[in-house]
Amino acid sequence: MGPGCRIITSAAVDQTSTQTRPAVRRWLRRIDEATRIADPATEAAFDKRWAELPDRAKTDAQIIGRASIGCEGTHGVFPKCDFACKPCYHSTDANRVRIAGPHTLRAVRAQMAFLRSARGPASYAQLIGGEVSLLEADDHAAALDAMRAEGRIPMSFSHGDFDDDYLHRVVLGADGTPRHRSISWALHIDSTMKGRTGFPKPTSERELDGVRTDAIAGFDRLEADHGIRSYVAHNMTVTPSNLGEVAETVRRCGRLGFKMFSFQPAAYVGNKSRWDEGFREVTDDAVWDEISAGVGQPLPFRVLQFGDLRCNRIAWGAFVCDRYVPILTDDDPLDAAARDAFFTTFRGNRLNVPGWLRAAKVARAIVSNPSVVPAAVSWARRFVRRAGGLRALRRGIVPVTFVMHSFIDARDVAPAWDLLKQGEISDEPQIRAAQERLQACVYTMGHPETGELVPACVQHSVLDPHENRQLVELLPMRPR
């Protein structure tokens, strides 16, 4: 035995083994935590959100607290808009606030950091205020980056009246390379909006079909030229003047390339000078019937519930050839069973998770609950049958989600919110209904200065007027 050799004793082996075991345990613990279907922070956020729901909203169909935490939005970051819409949900002072990039970025960073701490590490969030395209392109891009940095999936909310040059400057760096490979925008396009280039005072929805087509074409060019994928949603306010045009708009534009069509029955919120009589003649059922007529069949909205049904109706599905096929129906118990199996197996969201890790999480969840496999296979067979068979699917499938959001009138929001803050439930039916809807709200704004999470209706009806008066002093319009 040479001088460089040493005898490996059993004691040395035992010592090495003892030192290695903690490292192996830590490694296994990290793998265990990383591959859970939902990490502990997400689990805690979902538990809290479910507990906050009113009993009325805790149904088998409820998505909130099970597959989603809900959506988020910014406030007070750029209130100004260059349109004059009727109705307008912004307060009277909104257009007296100057657009200022540094203020926008400070406010977005603070709000997103607070939302992450209060609502978990990942969520969808809208960059919304007045008109987002009034921001300088670099400030717009920086705000989106600030949202991503806090685990948010950002969506820019706009009237869509911008050109390719602005869009490119937002999504491309100075050297022309993409800042990100996928982007999300919501474009609000309808005949209640006044000030659009080429259509300052539209008289019908059909007049705006070219605007819708051109908007999608701009995002298509972005993907063709730079490989940037887009999720583009279409928003439309519904009043007595355009209710009868909803179905035809869906028929003409449903397959243009918008991934979502969202309809908002007009409410008495925001700038009172923009209100017209008769808004409440447009009922939820009337709007949903029009959307259903546009797709050619009644759309299910009870099998999956997003918050309170008096606020939201939603149908996920796809156009297959000339047929719209919902992913789930209201009247099939097998679809309800498939939904329940999904909620049980895949609780939480997988936002901002790399593809390989998402696959590992899903695989582990399936191993833990293998009964989800036959439920998924059974659902797939039903979907194919409803679509008209595999041959129809091979001809193309266009996923489109239809949504209706109904806001609460400001006169009901203020007393309902005041009582909720005092821990009281109203005996008056209309105010109590508003309270239940606020408790189940799926669209939240964060106030880091007060530690409050605020429903969007409260933000627009109660807080925006005071907030914008303060912003007028902080960011007054410069003299011409």
Question: What does it look like?
Answer:
By secondary structure, the chain is of the alpha/beta class. The chain has one domain (69-331, 398-474): Alpha-Beta Barrel (TIM Barrel). It contains 15 helices and eleven strands. Strand 2 (123-127), helix 4 and strand 3 form a beta-alpha-beta unit.
List keywords for this structure.
single chain, 480 residues, alpha/beta, TIM Barrel, eleven-stranded mixed sheet, 15 helices, 11 strands, 43% helix
Mean pLDDT: 93
Q: How far apart are the termini?
A: 93 Å
Helix content: 40-55%
What Rg do the Cα atoms give?
25 Å
Estimate the global geometry from the Cα principal axes: globular
Counting structural domains, the number is 1
| Strand residues, percent | 5-15%
Order of strands side by side in the largest beta sheet? 8-7-9-6-5-4-3-2-1-10-11
Low-confidence stretches are 1-8
The helix count comes to: 15
CATH topology call: TIM Barrel
User: How many strand units?
Assistant: 11
H/E element string? HHEHEHEHEHEHEHEEHHHHEHHEEH
CATH class: Alpha Beta
Largest sheet: 11 strands, mixed
- Return the CATH architecture: Alpha-Beta Barrel
* Broad structural category: alpha/beta
Summarize the topology:
Layout: H1 10-34, H2 40-52, E1 71-73, H3 101-119, E2 123-127, H4 137-149, E3 152-158, H5 164-171, E4 182-188, H6 209-226, E5 229-238, H7 246-253, E6 260-265, H8 284-295, E7 312-320, E8 323-326, H9 333-345, H10 355-368, H11 372-387, H12 390-394, E9 397-405, H13 410-421, H14 429-439, E10 443-447, E11 452-455, H15 456-474
Parallel strand pairs: 1-2, 1-10, 2-3, 3-4, 4-5, 5-6, 6-9
Antiparallel strand pairs: 7-8, 7-9, 10-11
Helix pairs in contact: 3-4, 4-5, 7-8, 9-11, 13-14, 13-15
